[in-house]
């Protein structure tokens, strides 16, 4: 999936998330957290400033929430503290990529299941 | 009893003893501050060499003050006159106070007599920074090189100090080396003192 496709998916998700927040019958809803479909699951994590992190995985994969939280930590460390990163641009930080691939490998995910 | 053990009130702020200072500072706070420093300097310059020079100048200011402070606090107002003395001072004391640990290694250059190298697996200032590909060999460790230059210059050992990335086999991230090239007068003086 190249950059343009990722941007398209992300903007689609952003709109859906905002609409779901308005449509929800429950008061004080903060948006979709989990979307379960036949062939995939989509977990979404929204940080306090409103940045959304979502992961698309196989149905029934455990520990996705803690993975998302860990990715948020990586984001605050290697992206926000990088002086060469412009806010809202696609992330091209080497350290972030390296740590992200490490975190996504299966044995790491199992360790994160706290 | 209230008042027992109260600090002596000094009439003049210059009479107060120098405090030990806070031993710990938030790494995150420093990282954000340093990131802002780099970003601010980036807006003021046109090319990378200028940016490196600016970071070095910022570090130079830190280095000169750190030397004064540490000579007073750690070494009891003694002055280093020998080359190895000042180098091990930088490598251990300065590094320990600034970064919380001594530098990884101190080596003498093999090609030139006047070159010494302090190496570190990853500089604290570079911990969260990924250099974009189009910036080439730029290293934010220029700030640390400036600190070392400030310390050496003000201790009477003029030198040219630069920071370099050295790729290592089997490691994804290159290690950083601070290269110190002393001026001729330093070597001549050292030779005289060794006799």
From TrEMBL, chain A:
- Which CDD domains would you find in this protein's record? TRAPPC4_synbindin (cd14856)
Q: Name one GO cellular component term.
A: endoplasmic reticulum
Q: What are the protein's UniProt keywords? A: Endoplasmic reticulum, ER-Golgi transport, Golgi apparatus, Transport
- Protein localization: Endoplasmic reticulum; Golgi apparatus, cis-Golgi network; Golgi apparatus
For whether the record's keyword set contains Transport, the answer is: yes
Q: Which Gene3D superfamilies match?
A: 3.30.450.70
**GO biological process terms on file:** endoplasmic reticulum to Golgi vesicle-mediated transport
Hey, which family's this protein in? Belongs to the TRAPP small subunits family. TRAPPC4 subfamily.
Per UniProt, subunit arrangement is: Part of the multisubunit transport protein particle (TRAPP) complex.
Put simply, this protein is called Trafficking protein particle complex subunit
Lineage of source species: Eukaryota, Viridiplantae, Streptophyta, Embryophyta, Tracheophyta
TrEMBL record, chain B:
Q: Which Gene3D superfamilies match?
A: Trafficking protein particle complex subunit 3
A GO cellular component annotated for this chain's UniProt record is: endoplasmic reticulum
Primary residence: endoplasmic reticulum
Which InterPro entries does this UniProt record tie to the protein? Answer: NO_sig/Golgi_transp_ligand-bd (IPR024096), TRAPP-I_su5 (IPR016696), TRAPP_component (IPR007194)
UniProt keyword Transport present: yes
Q: Which GO terms describe its biological process?
A: endoplasmic reticulum to Golgi vesicle-mediated transport
Q: Name one Pfam family in it.
A: TRAPP
Q: Which top-rank group of organisms is this from?
A: Eukaryota
Entry keyword annotation includes Zinc: no
Q: PANTHER family per the record?
A: 41-2 PROTEIN ANTIGEN-RELATED, TRAFFICKING PROTEIN PARTICLE COMPLEX SUBUNIT 5
Subunit architecture: Part of the multisubunit TRAPP (transport protein particle) complex.
Q: Which family does it belong to?
A: Belongs to the TRAPP small subunits family. BET3 subfamily.
Name this polypeptide is given:
Trafficking protein particle complex subunit
């Amino acid at each position: 999936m190249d950059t343009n496709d990722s941007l398209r998916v992300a903007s689609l998700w952003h709109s859906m998330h905002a609409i779901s927040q308005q449509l929800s019958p429950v008061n004080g809803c903060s948006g979709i957290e989990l979307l379960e479909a036949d062939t995939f699951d989509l977990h979404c994590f929204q940080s306090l400033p409103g940045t959304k992190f979502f992961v698309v995985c196989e149905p029934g994969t455990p520990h996705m929430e803690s993975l998302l939280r860990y990715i948020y930590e990586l984001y605050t460390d290697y992206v926000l503290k990088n002086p060469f990163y412009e806010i809202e641009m696609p992330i091209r930080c080497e350290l972030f990529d390296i740590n992200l691939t490490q975190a996504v490998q299966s044995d790491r995910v199992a360790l994160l299941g706290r | 009893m209230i008042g027992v053990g109260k600090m002596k009130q000094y009439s003049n702020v210059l009479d107060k003893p120098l405090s030990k200072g806070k031993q710990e500072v938030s790494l995150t706070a420093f990282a954000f501050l340093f990131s802002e420093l780099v970003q601010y300097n980036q807006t003021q310059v046109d090319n990378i060499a200028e940016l490196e020079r600016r970071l070095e100048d910022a570090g130079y200011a830190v280095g000169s003050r750190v030397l004064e402070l540490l000579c007073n606090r750690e070494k009891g107002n003694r002055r280093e006159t020998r080359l190895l003395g000042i180098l091990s001072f930088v490598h251990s004391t300065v590094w320990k106070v600034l970064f919380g640990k001594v530098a990884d290694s101190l080596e003498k250059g093999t090609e030139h007599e006047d070159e010494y190298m302090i190496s570190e697996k990853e500089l604290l200032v570079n911990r969260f920074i990924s250099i974009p590909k189009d910036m080439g060999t730029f290293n934010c460790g220029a700030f640390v090189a400036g600190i070392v230059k400030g310390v050496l210059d003000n201790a009477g050992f003029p030198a040219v100090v630069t920071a370099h990335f050295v790729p290592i086999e089997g490691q994804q991230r290159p290690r950083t080396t601070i290269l110190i090239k002393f001026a001729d007068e330093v070597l001549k003086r050292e030779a005289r003192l060794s006799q």
